Protein 1
Amino acid sequence: MTTLMRRLLTEVSTRHYPNPPATHAQVEAFEARVGWRLDDDLRAFYLHCDGATLFAPREKAPNYRILPLSEIERARVRMRQENTDTFGAASWYTLLYLQDGDYVLVDVANQVDGRYVLLDAFHETYPVVEQISASFGEFLEKALASGNEYFWLED
């Protein structure tokens, strides 16, 4: 685990609302279910906490809810209830729920330095997406510094 991820995970644990960690068996079962492996950032996160809400508990409708492994699914199925290319790439999976049907997706077919890129998926324009981060670690760092705002929507 990188020093950056160690620092970010400590912050999630001390200032936010993490779920209990996933076990190695849960990670393996998730990878078998979806057919792809977590990258190093995501693996470190899920072994530290199996999802989390940032800035506010889940019941207070937080802007950032990092999904537990059990809730990660193909984006086109979650967002359009269809499993066809018309409704987005097969490699896009939900990773964060942002409220009102909006998600941050992980693109498991697109890596930068061995880490998956993250995409903004606005429910009204999906399957049009925009890359917002080169890795989960980069995304988490910016999200934690955002003050509960969507940092990629800033002018």
Protein 2
Amino acid sequence: MSELELHTLLVQGVFLVAALTVPALLFISAPYGRHARGGWGPQMDTRLAWMVMESPSVLWFLAVFFAGAHAWSLVPLLLLVLWQSHYVQRAFIFPLKIRPGGHTPVSVVAMGFMFNLVNAYVNARWVSEFGRYELSWLLDPRLWLGVGLFVLGYRINRRADAVLAALRKPGETGYKIPRGGLYELISCPNYFGELLEWTGWAIATWSVAGLSFAVFTAANLVPRALSHHKWYKQKFPEYPAGRKAVIPFLL
């Protein structure tokens, strides 16, 4: 089997995992964050869990990317900046802003770590080796539409995380209803931002590898957003009735 054939099989595997993830998460909320509960085996500190789980998307992606024949070409480097802008934040900055004391099942961390190993490989290897991004791609509207969506999603995601981080004053515990910005329309603008980011990535790379990640992101985050939305409405009787879960005015 050639490496390109292996790459194709792994991309198909991401689509398969996405298809299995939707029904699983519609019935079972992933047991971390506000949905944390026992019965999922040993646990570890949530901040460390995020770093471990997301680190392949930074470190392994870099290793695979720079092993590619086209790694130093302009367009692949631009795409590298997009990817790393999200994952350096997600793996090494965001965890430090999480309230200390939380715990996440090791089983959840292991599953996330393994997925990120595969996902980082298939996307990095495509962008810097198997894909062909000549300088003419800089004039293609697909690239800039994708970059625009990615940047918009990134800004929405960061803003939403900042609102959540500011909800609790020092020493406070528990949850509050987030207010302001897209929180007036949806319960999970942070997830909406990520959906835009990876849809933008799929368009900018114009690749099946990128599409597989966008599909998986939706399969993972939309059911979780629905769980969050349901949780908010159950916990807060005064929760705004007009808010949707993750897509303004639609879902």
Protein 3
Amino acid sequence: MEILKMQTIITQRKYSQEETFVAKTWHDGPVKTASIDEIPTLPQSGWMPVGSVEFCRAAMIHQGIHTPEPVDYPNCLQSFMPEKAALYHWGQAQEIMVNKTGQRWHVKPWQTKLEEDLWVFDTRVWLMPWHDFVAEHRVYVCAGELLGLGRYDDGEDDPVWNLEAINQMIQIYQDSGFAPAGYGLDIGVSAIDGKTYLVEINDGWALGFYKGTCSPWNYLKLLQARWVEMAGILAVIK
């Protein structure tokens, strides 16, 4: 897949996450900084944002890019999850959780990073039984290629990953035709049976960078691939 080498990256002002540092250090083109409020003053094409979900979403709106639907739990990968995820309205989910006492739950809004204080009865949420993991990593994937892993939990042990299962997830997702050009495949080693499971998918348009085996350059390539895909631009990187 040919990917645009973006001429300019705009990082979010006062956003101190690792991905901002990577963009400023490793991008070999111009890197500028702006706040969310300054986005309307920027050009309407030709640049890529690096920052929070809110910052990147504002950049999409300004550039006329349609915000993709969330990709958290693809149907084709449900068999790789320890528990099936189901979509409910928040009001329905609350009833289910109340009626099943003693069960721990994982609840996640369908809309990416929607703050809980904004949830109302009709807010769509994913609901599934809680599962304990001894370790969780993000697998960075670009155009179906595994670029590396980065650990995002607080553990320090050395888990045994099932690389075959990880590659199967990537291949099945790629073959489904629904995989973004760049994304994070979050995986966990179960505290119950030691198997490697899918935790969730994170879209590559606002993806955190965790230190590990994915190089900063490959991380930027992933972000660029996804942004180019969404913007519908064809160009080449070196």
Protein 4
Amino acid sequence: MKVGIMQPYFFPYIGYWQLIKAVDKYVIYDDVNYKKRGWINKNNILINGEAKPISLRTFKVSQNKRINEIEIDHDLVYKKKLLKTIKEAYGKAPYFQEAYSVVEKIINQNEPNLATYLANSIKEICAYLNIRTEIILSSELTKNEHLRGQDKILEICGLFSAEEYLNAAGGLLLYSPLDFQAQGIELKIIKTNHISYQQKDVREFVPNLSIIDVMMFNSPEEIDAMLGDFTVLNNFSDLLQTSTNG
């Protein structure tokens, strides 16, 4: 049993989807504190050859609230403006029609809760990319709400009798392989390899953009190949070397 756990994000980059596809159960970590300066409600797309931000409007925002306690501002004018920005950026992309229909459906949903909205968007994109991993909300699990950090992750892994816990490279310094090993779980870190594809009107490839960019310029079949283009670091020497190299 392979388990992945991560906060929900607004149209996250391809590494996020690599993690989802690599596991049997993916837990959307929605009952942790919201970060105002994080990527939960924003991302970058390609506009005139450069990475430019797009965002999801929220209100009653506070870092003292959990992600699943944040509300979305469903301003119709803003939604139309956001969709227009995406359409103007990618209108001539080879897979615009297919990808835009998914993006439009996600942005036009009227779900008021941020966590549920993002969970819905993740499931929609998984369906488009034919990712069949089971998606679960952390807040729906019966667990010890007093646990924090690694202990909370270990408990969730235990609920699913996980044999492997996979995390993105950003989690490298957050967890102890020995602590996971003590619970009979192998900690593995996924590091996205260098992925590039033909983008419109760029002199040099712009990496790590929203999955929107990937979907606009690549077919689901081509993206499927990218989803397996990563390196798994699963021994202490790999982890130490990666940590040392930044």
